[in-house]
Amino acid sequence: MSLMKGPLDTLGILQNERVGSPPFAETAFCRKLCLSGQKRGVPVLIFSPHWIDWGKRLVRGYTYEDQEWKSVTAPIPKLVYDRLTFTNEVQYRKNRAAVARMRLSGTAWLSVGLGGKWDMYRSLSRIDSIKHLLPETSLYSGVKALNDFLHEHQGKAFLKPHSGSKGRSALFIQRLGSSAHADSSSIRGYTIVVKGRDDSNQPFEHNFDRLQAGLHWIHSFINGRKYVLQPYLTLNSPEEEPFDLRTLMQKDETGRWALTGMAVRIGLENGITSNLHGGGHAADAAQYLKAQYGASVSQQLIHDIIQYSECIPEALEARHGRLAELGIDFGIDRSSRIWLLEVNSKPGRAVFEHTGEREAEMHAVERPILYARHVLVRHLRRVCP
Question: pTM of the entire structure?
Fold first, then answer.
């Protein structure tokens, strides 16, 4: 199927550049998208926004055919599935201008972006049906505010980078009284423990004999980046393994939202996150929750989580515009209370490979292609030749 003369206009997959062959991220996922597109009559082109020749209005990209990656040159796709991710401000600025030019040129997006964690919190807190699930959240504003927060929340706090993902650069902070003379209104008499993952997603732990030294180390680690501050929630199994539950909501071939699947992600013992990239593993949601909470409670938990998952996409679309898929992360504490931890408009889907849920794994790849075909046929062809 030619990218120049396919039965439909090409679907472009926007990806981060990387060193290697092929020179872009998520190669395994992109290969599956290309193969699914071939089956469904949707030509797929993988490219970075920096590979566009605006003078000729052509883009150099890659497609997967005959069991190998092939470099091709094709017209700029009229519809793109944005998989760009940014781990720092430099990456974001590098891509911002190129992406903005694509938008101004008339390229349509399969799904809008939802911004970072603080933006997402503000949007979700306006949805009446789920706002009670959100942990108290504020922006990190400095050493004094963090110390006050620790005093108000039993000496524990969790810090997440506004634009981070995969557990990278997250911090768990615990303030400990080191003597009977510890004064809760000051920083005297306390020690502090900081556990987390660095910018390369490697785990670390630092212990500070003086609270002031620990607070200033945290401030230096944040280094002016936007962080959200939340209470530390006990979302661990009896074995002290952190876990959460990921649901994947996607639009199908008719443009309607459907639950693709759900799975539990389990982190390392005494870890602070459950992300697979941080060394975690996945498990079947129903089996895991039954083992943790019993049959009756686990069934109710799954029922409630599905209901919450089904109401979130349309509510966010009403505020932000067209969406194609959402990864929704829930935590469950030891009293069986459900917490809404995060909503991601560019979700991963490796969790279903780990649990062996083949139908969910298949739908996770096929539904973006099927929904793209729906958009290309029902919407873009009205205005595009």
Answer: 0.90
